[in-house]
Amino acid sequence: MTDDAQILIAQLMTHQTLSRENKLVKRALTDEAFRLDIDTRLAACGLKFLDNVYADNVTLALAREIEPKIFGSREVWQNNNLGLARDGVALLVVLWAMIILPKRERQEAHQHALEDQEDMFGKDKPLPRAEDASMGISYRALLADFGDKLGRKTRMDINLGQLNKLGFIERRGDMILEGPLLDLMMDTDTLRDRIINGALADIFHRPAPREAAIIPFPQADAQGEAQADAQADALSEPLPEQ
């Protein structure tokens, strides 16, 4: 005998992703008892229901505690990213940074604008759909900016094909667009500051905080200053002749 929780889990395992507009997905996002039933069943299999308010889709993922038992030790795990080579993983991070982060900014700016408007009924104001806020990037621009660093055209084309097959991106002519998994499988809270203020700071034109380059030194007391002066005097004396 099947039930709605069983059907939803089976659909996710079969199709990998489902739209948030799906009837059972909507129920999972709003019905606490239904969601608890789904989470309990998935946890028994080492899985979790993965959703993101900024994304238009939901999916399943391994529970964090089970990942090392599936992917192996830390060293092996780092090289077991869905079969992606290092340059493929690097390309994935670049695409996430160039597509998802600007989309987030547009979604949040739109949300703040709505909140600033007067609303006598106090209705909830949902975020704009990802497909409306996500704009994608040009393949030619990506190749010009990152081709030399990511294996040039041949390697980039191979990795883009693999990312497209995995559901991270979609290709439409010259444009590379957000796929159903790009905003779901990346840990935004962990990566966002590291990307903007670190690896891609020059791309986003956001230099690292000046405070990070300042190393405070403790104030020396009077005894410490005297010892420092004595050491300086000793160093300044000429060496004896041999």
TrEMBL record:
Biased composition (Low complexity): 219-234
Origin superkingdom: Bacteria
Annotated stretches, region: Disordered: 218-242
Protein name (Swiss-Prot/TrEMBL): DUF4194 domain-containing protein
Organism: Noviherbaspirillum album
